[in-house]
Amino acid sequence: MEDRKQRIILVGRSQAGKTTLTQYMTDQQLSYHKTQTVQVVEGQFIDTPGEYMEQRGFYGALSVTAADVDIIALVQSAVDESTMFAPNFGSMFFGKPVMGIVTKIDEASPEQVRRADLYLEQAGASTRFWVSSMTGEGMDQLKDWLREK
């Protein structure tokens, strides 16, 4: 049987860092652009528009988009003072593993990073990583974890 990479969907509000994270993980040049549609990057990462989180009417589309993935990645910016993830949000994905990624840790205080981590824990992310797509901090641990999956 062919070895294939785990397919990961990135879910989070606009400007949480999903696109930049995907660019970093796939060795692309970092350049911000607003994600308008679902984008599959290198057959592994599924980058979703922030509107999928911000407007409940899109939850159905989010659920359908996640149907063929292996891992759900909830993405929370450390500098965002609030969260869009309701408690146990990850349970809507029907038993798929849910991980959390705290982004922008290079711009945040330790307290902000811990708060973002708590948001993700409460949302159902059992495994969580703290990363910066700008400095690379935490990225090796995330890449290693994904390789082991």
TrEMBL record:
Source organism superkingdom: Bacteria
Q: Which UniProt keywords apply?
A: Nucleotide-binding
Pfam families on file: PduV-EutP
The signal peptide annotation in the UniProt record is none
Q: Do you know which InterPro entries this protein is assigned to? A: EutP_PduV, P-loop_NTPase
One GO-annotated biological process of the protein: biogenic amine metabolic process
List the Gene Ontology MF annotations in alphabetical order. ATP binding
Family of the protein in this entry: Belongs to the EutP/PduV family.
Q: What is this protein called?
A: EutP/PduV family microcompartment system protein
Question: Species name for this entry?
Answer: Aminipila butyrica
Which gene is this protein's source? eutP
